[in-house]
């Protein structure tokens, strides 16, 4: 039948819901806007400043520092009124695709530019940077994609910085900064100059060391209070979906191009091509992601940031938030360590409701009650640029608090006790499981997917935790649960989907 | 009769309940059986007062059951009309032909190619359209046909073959931003300029305007790559038949390199003077007058622009100086230069770098009468003037020693007849 002419067989009337129709039902409701626990405010930047945010930080004295792509570095002491920040220009120079910031003091900040990590200093205390020192140079083949993320402090006076690979959608220049490798130039995303696709470490004396390898487009690097390094990467070649990695020195994280600069890899053959290595060998050598974000959850993850507010920003202290630069969304990551390996679950933390698309960098306010979010898409998927803050109002939050692996299923914990009678039956926990294959192509499907209804649902006495029994959990699979009909004090669950990456299983 | 094909549309008393309704709507559907659960649900809202849909792209598989909810939270009336790929012109012509009948017909004319359409929804109204996606993959536009709205109020339903992964997984939260773009109001010029007294410093990719290759002694040499297919992990080639022999040849598909400089700093003193100083070679590379940079090839078109495709800005004006030969301090001091940074002296940068044991400071300043000068200060070792007669850099006219290790080097313009060569794409083999 021809669809193109409207035919009753193809276009049927559907039921629509109006207010009146719902009046007779007792259904859980999302919180009304004025009682929602979090809301977004638009921070007004000075006229003439393009708010394409590459970095956000607070100085120890409480000034917000905003790094922009083309309008330098702006500083302001935050005010309650988001439109009344008193901005001062710390630098009006156009730094090269600056995409990372660390504020050491009101007078000294570190900025990641494409060619280097730069220290900006206001030596004469007039509020304006007058000294720009190269802390560490980075090599460039000249592709637009070779941006950097970080720096994050190592706690010993040094820093970690993530270096993107080049993309074949860009160009290689005739004059490259750094030794050019024709072998490294091969590929979809490639590493034709050292050390593209690496996490770099700069120590307190300025010594630069290639620290971990195997990255594609690591536009997010964070460090937790225990000093562990976390890096997000972007779906693409050798990245079936968007991952979050716990990164340790010397390890390989799966994107092979960076290996051309690994002396161990090229020891016997200086022209050894990582793209010609058997997939099975690369697969065996790689360290897996702690969390594989389902592609629908995250399109393009950016900075990971641990909630260090100690509860001032809601019930998620110690958990990690991850900005998503290709959807109006911030993710939340709930990690646990099983058999020495990090893994865990992710869910939406905040989505839509005034949040702009393009979130790239985040920082908590010194008081801990606000999360500043800087956006930029650099004119790619349409302009999505600006500065916002998410304010916690101290009101009731009803979300999944944790998802923990069990031998035969999962325990899901909620921030509030579940109402009696809601989410009691297995159907309330619609579950599917699948895995991500290690593929050289650009992205990949959720493979071997199957529905997996829980065989048993058991609530704790305080109705905050539910044990879901599935039978044996399989390592190397993702378990995604959509929770239906969950209510607490007649309030609907804020975000109903949670997905767990099971790298290891319990004995 | 058309009205029987349209979904029911209801007016709501206020916008506030709209968000709350998502939950009950989903909850109620659960009991409706397997079919209802497999429907792909998409909600498209109107961004209030912006004449825009909040969703401009969504994806479905061929033949899949779609439930499209359209909500009008705007103060103006709007509709949503989903059409087949090439039907827009006929649709718009049809709308225009409706004339006075437009309102009555919800601005939906009787023309072929309409896949689904809502009524003209008054403020706070909504409607649910249920349909099966076409069997033909492709991009199916949707737009508001209220006269004039279609210029900005439009989007695309991408239909992918059955089973193919949908690039945009559909969830309530995945709609595009409802927040106006702050970039639009910032007014960033793509032809930025400083002034004589307050130069503008930009770190950016820069073009190589045909410099002596010896200048790039400390750069790597980029050579053209191959087009590459990540799925098969192979370089791509094209089959070509030689007409004389009839033999088929595999010709590798090359990707040219670009005449760019990745790590330089560009400084502009207004119309009268600009220069490029490189942080890899640690030297003045070239100078020009009569403009600065056209950033469109790098930044896309103003104001937000599309994605750029070359990433190397164009020089505006005329070159008046080009470096040539090896760097002045290289042989005498030993070792590669290492860029240290710069400090602002007055409003102009003074660059510094190290070469072996020496630290060298350089400032480039515009001067009168077609001249500009380089102020050099060397610490850490006595040195004769690097700018000897017939010196390494052409264009030196006068070297003024200013004390131990200090020189003022004057250059005279050597204007080039042709406009500055810029980073145009020159395929190389």
Structural class of chain A, by secondary structure, is mainly beta
SS field, number of helical segments of chain A: 3
Please report the total strand number of chain B as a whole number. 33
Question: Strand share of the residues of chain B?
Answer: 35-45%
Features:
heterodimer, A: 507 residues, mainly beta, Immunoglobulin-like, 3 domains, eight-stranded antiparallel sheet, four-stranded antiparallel sheet, 3 helices, 39 strands, 3% helix, globular, disordered N terminus, B: 429 residues, five-stranded mixed sheet, 7 helices
Write the layout of secondary structure elements.
The complex is a heterodimer of chains A (507) and B (429).
Chain A: E1 11-13, H1 19-22, E2 38-42, E3 53-58, E4 64-68, E5 73-76, E6 88-91, E7 100-105, E8 108-112, E9 116-121, E10 131-137, E11 148-153, E12 159-163, E13 166-167, E14 172-173, E15 175-176, H2 182-185, E16 189-190, E17 198-202, E18 208-213, E19 220-223, E20 229-232, E21 242-247, H3 279-285, E22 291-293, E23 301-306, E24 320-324, E25 329-338, E26 341-351, E27 359-364, E28 370-375, E29 386-392, E30 400-406, E31 409-414, E32 429-435, E33 447-451, E34 456-459, E35 465-469, E36 477-483, E37 487-488, E38 491-492, E39 497-502
Chain B: H1 2-5, E1 9-11, H2 16-30, H3 34-38, E2 40-47, E3 52-53, E4 57-61, E5 65-71, E6 81-83, H4 88-98, E7 114-117, E8 125-132, E9 138-143, E10 154-160, H5 183-186, E11 200-203, E12 206-207, E13 220-221, E14 225-226, E15 228-229, E16 234-235, E17 237-241, E18 248-252, E19 254-255, E20 257-258, E21 260-261, E22 264-268, E23 274-278, E24 283-289, E25 293-294, H6 296-299, E26 314-315, E27 318-322, H7 330-333, E28 337-345, E29 348-355, E30 358-366, E31 371-379, E32 396-403, E33 406-412
Parallel strand pairs in B: 2-5, 4-10
Antiparallel strand pairs in B: 1-8, 2-3, 5-8, 6-7, 6-9, 9-10, 11-22, 12-21, 14-19, 15-16, 17-18, 22-23, 23-24, 24-27, 25-26, 28-29, 29-30, 30-31, 31-33, 32-33
């Amino acid at each position: 039948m021809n669809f193109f002419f409207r035919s009753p067989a193809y276009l049927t009337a559907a039921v629509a819901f109006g207010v009146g129709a719902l009046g007779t039902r007792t259904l859980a409701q999302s919180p009304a806007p004025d009682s929602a626990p979090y809301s977004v405010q638009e921070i007004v930047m000075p006229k003439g400043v393009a708010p394409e945010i590459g970095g956000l930080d607070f100085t120890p004295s409480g000034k917000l520092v905003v790094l922009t792509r083309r309008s330098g570095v702006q500083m302001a002491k935050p005010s309650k009124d988001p439109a009344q920040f008193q901005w001062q220009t710390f630098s009006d120079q156009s730094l090269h695709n600056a995409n990372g910031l660390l504020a050491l003091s009101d007078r000294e900040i570190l900025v990641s530019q494409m060619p280097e990590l730069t220290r900006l200093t206001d030596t004469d205390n007039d509020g304006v940077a007058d000294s720009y020192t190269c802390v560490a140079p980075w090599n460039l083949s000249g592709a637009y994609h070779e941006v950097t993320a970080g720096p994050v402090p190592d706690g010993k006076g040094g820093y970690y910085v993530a270096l993107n690979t080049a993309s074949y959608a860009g160009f290689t220049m005739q004059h490259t900064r750094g030794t050019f490798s024709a072998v490294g130039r091969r590929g979809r995303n490639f590493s034709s100059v050292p050390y593209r696709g690496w996490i770099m470490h700069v120590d307190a004396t300025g010594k630069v060391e290639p620290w971990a390898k195997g990255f594609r487009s690591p536009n997010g690097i964070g460090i937790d209070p225990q000093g562990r390094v976390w890096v997000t990467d972007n779906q693409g070649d050798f990245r079936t979906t968007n991952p979050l990695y716990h990164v340790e020195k010397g390890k390989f994280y799966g994107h092979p191009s960076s290996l051309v600069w690994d002396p161990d890899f090229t020891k016997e053959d200086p022209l050894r091509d990582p793209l010609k290595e058997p997939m099975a060998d690369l697969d065996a050598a790689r360290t897996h992601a702690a969390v594989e974000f389902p592609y629908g959850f995250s399109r393009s993850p950016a900075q990971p940031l641990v909630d260090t507010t100690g509860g001032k920003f809601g019930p998620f202290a110690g958990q990690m938030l991850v900005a998503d630069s290709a959807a109006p969304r911030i993710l939340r990551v709930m990690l646990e360590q099983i058999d020495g390996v990090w893994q865990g679950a992710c869910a939406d933390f905040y989505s839509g409701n005034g949040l702009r698309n393009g979130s790239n960098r985040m920082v908590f306010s010194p008081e801990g009650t606000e999360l500043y979010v800087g956006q930029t898409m650099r004119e790619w998927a349409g302009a999505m640029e600006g500065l916002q803050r998410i304010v916690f109002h101290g009101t009731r939050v009803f979300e999944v608090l944790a998802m923990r692996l069990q031998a035969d299923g999962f325990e899901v914990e909620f921030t509030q006790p579940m109402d009696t009678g809601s989410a009691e039956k297995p159907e309330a926990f619609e579950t599917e499981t699948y895995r991500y294959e290690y593929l050289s192509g650009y992205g990949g499907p959720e493979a071997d997917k199957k529905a997996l209804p829980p065989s048993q649902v058991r609530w704790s006495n305080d109705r905050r935790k539910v044990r879901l029994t599935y039978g044996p959990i399989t390592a190397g699979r993702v378990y995604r649960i959509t929770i239906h009909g969950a209510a607490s004090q007649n309030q609907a669950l804020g975000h109903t989907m949670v997905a767990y990456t099971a790298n290891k299983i319990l004995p | 009769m058309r009205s029987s094909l349209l979904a029911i549309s209801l007016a709501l008393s206020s916008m506030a309940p709209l968000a709350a309704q998502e939950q009950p709507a989903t909850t109620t559907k659960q009991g409706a059986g397997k079919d209802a659960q497999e429907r792909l649900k998409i909600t498209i809202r109107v961004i209030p007062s912006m004449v825009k849909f909040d969703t401009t792209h969504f994806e479905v598989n061929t033949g899949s059951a779609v439930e499209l909810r359209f909500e009008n939270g705007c103060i103006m009336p709007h509709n949503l009309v989903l059409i087949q790929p090439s039907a827009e012109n006929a649709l718009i012509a049809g709308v225009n032909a409706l004339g006075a009948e437009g309102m009555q017909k919800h601005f939906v004319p009787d023309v072929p190619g309409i896949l689904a359409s809502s009524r003209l929804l008054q403020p706070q109204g909504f409607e649910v359209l249920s349909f099966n996606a076409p069997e033909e993959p492709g991009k199916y536009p949707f737009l508001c046909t209220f006269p004039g709205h279609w210029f900005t109020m439009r989007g695309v339903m991408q239909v992918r073959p059955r089973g193919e992964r949908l690039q945009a997984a559909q969830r309530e939260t995945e709609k595009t931003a409802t927040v106006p773009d702050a970039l639009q109001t910032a007014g960033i010029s793509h032809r930025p300029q400083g002034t004589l007294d307050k130069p503008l410093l930009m770190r950016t990719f820069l073009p190589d305007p045909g410099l002596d290759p010896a200048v790039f002694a400390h750069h790597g040499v980029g050579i053209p790559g191959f087009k590459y297919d990540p799925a098969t992990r192979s370089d791509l080639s094209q089959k070509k038949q030689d007409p004389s022999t009839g033999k088929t040849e595999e010709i590798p598909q090359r990707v040219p390199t670009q005449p760019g400089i990745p790590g330089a700093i560009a400084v502009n003193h207004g119309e009268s003077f600009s220069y490029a100083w490189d942080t890899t070679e640690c030297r003045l590379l070239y100078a020009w007058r009569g403009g600065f940079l056209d950033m469109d090839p790098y930044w896309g078109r103003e104001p937000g622009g599309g994605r750029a495709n070359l990433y190397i800005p164009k020089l505006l004006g005329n070159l008046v100086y080009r470096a040539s030969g090896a760097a002045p301090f290289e042989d005498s001091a030993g070792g590669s230069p290492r860029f240290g940074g710069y400090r602002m002296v007055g409003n102009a940068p003074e660059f510094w770098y190290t070469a072996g044991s020496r630290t060298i400071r350089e400032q480039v300043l515009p001067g009168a009468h077609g001249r500009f000068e380089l102020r050099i200060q060397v610490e850490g070792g006595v040195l004769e003037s690097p700018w000897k007669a017939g010196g390494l850099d052409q264009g030196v006219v006068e070297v003024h020693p200013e004390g131990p290790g200090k020189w003022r080097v004057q250059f005279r313009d050597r204007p080039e007849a042709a406009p500055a060569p810029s980073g145009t794409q020159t395929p190389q083999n």
